[in-house]
Design goal:
Order of helices and strands: HEHEHEHEEHEHHHEHHE
GO molecular function: S-adenosylmethionine-dependent methyltransferase activity
Strand content: 25-35%
Shape: globular
Structural class: alpha/beta
Strand order of the largest sheet: 1-7-8-6-5-2-3-4
Number of strands: 8
Protein name: Class I SAM-dependent methyltransferase
InterPro entries: 23S_rRNA_MeTrnsfrase_RlmA, Methyltransf_11, SAM-dependent_MTases_sf
CATH superfamily: Vaccinia Virus protein VP39
Keywords: Methyltransferase, Transferase
CATH architecture: 3-Layer(aba) Sandwich
Radius of gyration: 19 Å
Length: about 240
């Protein structure tokens, strides 16, 4: 518990969890698919880039490449990682408007956005441009969320993929692909849970070891007795195109 409380959670690198937790990956391979699209366009924007780690996996970036991030430590990490490759990282709140001109980008990407402003995405896409993203789906990792917070019936209905598709269409985009997968997660020790909840801060708002020490000790006992704590993430792949030339 002390080790997981002290380790840095800056950026979006989860390598500290190696050997402590596992998560299945979606079959579509988002980072690989995103990289292939980035290599084929002239301009792109990665929204809510985190520490820039996913974007940095792409071997080829377009001549014009920008990224946004709202959390200052992540923005600094992304700038250090992506700046040498010519990416302009803009620190901006996760709310409209995006700090770019109309029809500025051929491609907009995003992995696990906290919020999606469909009108803004449609605005900054050029005609014929594409939004390609992997979203967190409904009730993702809710076995863990509800262990700490109790039943969350209203929250379980959020992030519905069909509703997201409808919102994209309402903004004037054509939904080309929309699919969701449910994926197994295993936490092998209580430190992995602490690290995860410190990093993914919206799962259990206000989480701290001090606030939840009792539940964490109970969870430690459960894992030692019964084996890994099992949860399930949900992921949605969405590709939407702006009509035009």
């Amino acid at each position: 518990m002390a080790e997981a409380s002290a380790v840095s959670v800056d950026g979006w690198d989860f390598s500290w969890l190696d050997g402590r937790a596992t998560e299945e990956r979606p079959s579509w391979g988002y980072a690989r698919s995103m990289a292939s699209r980035l290599a084929a366009v002239r301009s792109a924007l990665d929204v809510q880039t985190g520490g820039g780690e996913v974007l940095a996996e792409a071997r080829t970036l377009p001549p014009t490449m920008a990224a946004t991030e709202s959390w200052p430590p992540n923005a600094a990490t992304a700038t250090r990682l992506l700046g040498p490759r010519g990416v302009v990282v803009v620190a901006t709140p996760d709310e409209p408007p995006l700090p770019f001109a109309d029809e500025a980008f051929e491609l907009v990407t995003c992995r696990h956005p906290a919020t999606v402003w469909w009108d803004e995405i449609a605005r900054v896409l050029e005609p014929g441009g594409t939004y390609f993203a992997q979203h967190v789906g409904p009730a993702s990792v809710f076995e863990l969320v509800e262990y700490f917070l109790g039943p969350q019936p209203e929250a379980r209905r959020a992030r519905d993929p069909e509703a997201e598709g409808a919102a994209a269409r309402a903004a004037g985009l054509e939904v080309v692909d929309l699919r969701t997968e449910r994926l197994r997660i295993e936490f092998f020790d209580v430190g992995a849970v602490i690290y995860f909840l410190r990093k993914v801060i919206w799962m259990v708002p206000g989480f701290s070891v001090e606030a939840y020490r009792g539940r964490l000790r109970e969870l430690d006992g459960l894992i030692r007795r019964d084996g890994p704590f099992v949860a399930h993430s949900t992921r949605t792949l969405i590709e939407a195109r702006k009509p035009g030339a």
